[in-house]
Amino acid sequence: MAELEKNLALLKAACDDPKRMLEKYLSEGKQVIGCFAPYTPEQLVCAAGMVPMGLWGGQTEYQLAKSYLPAFACPVMQANMEFGLSGVYKGLSAVIIPAICDTLRCMTQNWRFGVKEIPMIPIVYPQNRKSRAAVDYLVSEFEAVLVMLATITGNMVSEASLSRAIRIYNAHNAVMREFCDTANDHLDVITPSVRHMVMKSAWFFDKEEHTEIMRGVIDGLKALPRYDYPGKRVVLTGIACEPDALLDIFAENGIAVVGDDLAQESRQYRTDAPESGGGALKRLAAQWMLRTGCSLIHEDGKPRGPMLVKLCRDTGADGVVLSLMKFCDPEEYDVPYFMKDLKAAGIPCLSFETDQLGDSLGQTATRIESFAEILS
Amino acid sequence: MSEAEMNVRSPETLPAGQEASSAAPAAKPKRPKAKSLIMIGEQTQALFDSAREAKARGEMVGWSASIFPQEIAETLGLVVLYPENHSAGIAARHQSDPFLQECEGSLGYSNDLCAYAKVNLAYASVLNGESEVELPDGGKMVKPDFLLLTNNICNQLTKWYENLSKQLNIPIFFIDTCYNPWDHVTESRVRYVRAQIDDLIRDLCAFTGKTWDDERFQEVMRISQRNSYLWERANNLQEKKPAPLSGFELFNYMSCMVCNRGKTSTTAILEQLNAEIEKHIEEGTSTYRGDQNFRVSWDGIACWPYLSHNLRTLKKHGINMVASSYGKAWAIEYEDLDGMARAYCIASTNGDNLTTMLSRRLEALRRMGCEGTIYHVNRSCKVMDCQMMEVQRQLSRIAGVPFTSFDGDQADYRNYSEAQFETRIEGLVEIMKQNKEAKANG
Predict the structure, then answer these.
(1) How close does chain A come to B93, measured CA to CA in Å?
(2) How far is B322 from B69, CA to CA, in rounded Å?
(3) Which of A80, A146, A296, A333 to mutate to test the interface with B (most CBs of B within 10 A)?
(4) Which of A82, A260, B34, B116 is deepest in the core (most CB within 10 A)?
(5) Residue A77 domain-assigned (yes or no)
(6) What proportion of chain A, given as a percentage, has pLDDT over 70?
(7) Contacting residues of A for B383, CB less than 8 Å apart
(8) Cβ–Cβ of A131/B176 closer than 8 Å?
(9) How many domains does chain A contain in total?
(10) Is residue A360 a part of any domain in this protein?
(11) pLDDT tens digit string along B363-393?
(12) Could you say which of A112, A127, A141 has the minimum Cβ distance to residue B158?
């Protein structure tokens, strides 16, 4: 238990103070690349010998960002812009920005002109994944990223290091999935906010290091007796479900999180890059082609609803909670369809808007309380 | 947007009952409707008629994103309708409310979404028998059998069409043009888009049973190129002083470029329009009544629900809009299929990086001799709103031209304040006046 607590404390410290993690890596002589939400080719950063660090917004007042973004822009991007302009991200060698939605298209340019001291590396993922040309196109995007990274490090990236990075990330994916499974037998320890903290911490660590800590966490959990959670269980869906104060409301109402479809959390880990079958960049592109059920990646047939129903069945969840990031149009287009699918499957769903700030949670608390009653 | 759709004319020629308000000017003698405007009304009607007739014959009809490579469907002889254009028409005629209510109510969509999409998703729901909103046009936007999608305008289109596809259980034919973060279109993008065009031709033939005719395609490309040239020429003739047209009138002609770019009927309309403009230039006349005190550019999509109020307010100050970042998106130039792939990647400035956006706007400001820019903060369009503050700052600094912005929406009438628009325009006029006086005083 002591070992488990020590490992969880390590992860919590990183979440509480990501800047300290940045400074730690810089003091070790490493270069750090900021990776904008939701998807960037972190494996390329890892292969280049640098540390990728996730940029997923945070709790801050938008002041400088107001000169670049209207009030109805994504809160994650507002916060990233604010942190960039105010110098919080000082020390990053560059940021990678995926132009995956309309706001992120614009963020590539806002950053380029607003935060000139931190170079911007753009990537545009293909959305027509049925096209036979999509893989070649994406490989060329990866190559452009690699060239820009090489101008920062002064070193080329070998095929061997790319393949190694893919293995590191696949191993990390596996450990994160294993944690999600294991956590459900220990919902006394892994409360909603602890679960979120563990998942979020991955964004601030070198992935080999994080994998090692996570193995310690999983082993620590497995050493504990299985806990029969008496409350209700839900699956979270959306971009992110923050801050902790929001998640604590679930715990207070006897609700545990037993699975998630959050872009910040499990969407990152459910698809591996193939470890054989061509060059590393091609295999990395194949990972993109295989991703499914994410609002930010075009697919025919709206598969998210059936996927959520299955996730509920697999985890024994009693309901779904949609944490809808304010002004996130890709998510907003998915909502009517997966709501309909959940309803048809008899699975209750609570939805509320979130902005990471959590400064007005009163109404949300009331709704979670009512939802707990519906579930019981 | 066609005149038949939009009734977009100078305030003095607006039909009775259209946007009537206390701010309306005293009645003036109506000038006869230009022949080109009559022609465009006929063309719009013909498109909806042909869609209805095609359905009656059992042929497939498509719905398309507005900057899709229409040459392909035109070559195959497919009838294609354009939801963005149609939603704009509904908004301009002040008929969007029941559709917005239905979309945000029964259909469960957020009010944050693009109002073109919301109007169309509700309209599609009616066509699909799931909603009961009365269709003000009797359903002339017939139910589609397939969708033609590009995302060169925005990524919301991708999600919108994804939902239509599921709702109506019909396939999407998708050309993913990819955003351009660089100052050029990378060759990898051209290869990707070209491959998709090749697939589109094969798949659309297989789905519709039509046959590809390369000779016909060459002809459609020639027609499209001729139309692009004529459209750009008509826009550029506004550089004359005084400008021969009241600038908003060019929006009337957009439907022929959006919906009928590969047709000879468009060539006839644009030749007629060019001739009418030339006649104005020769005679020193303009469809803009009164003195043109200031020449401005308009950045962003028209605020369709309040176009008449926009016009009246500008008119009060003698402002003519002579350049638009938007209308010229359909002046698409290329010589072959690779060129077509490249051209569609950059057709909309929404798909361009900031430097390209800036250079296109700067060229227009200078060429047209603009003294100010009016920037529409279109609540529907995040791709425009989320980078335009920086674009306008840089543009204003480099061009030495002031700008103002106002909050509006391309189709949601709830996102606009007449008072704010008037105040912002007054502020812009003050600065333009000062600049003019400073220039006159050396």
Answers:
(1) 26
(2) 27
(3) A333
(4) B116
(5) yes
(6) 100
(7) 102, 105-106
(8) yes
(9) 1
(10) no
(11) 999 999 999 999 999 999 999 999 999 999 9
(12) A127
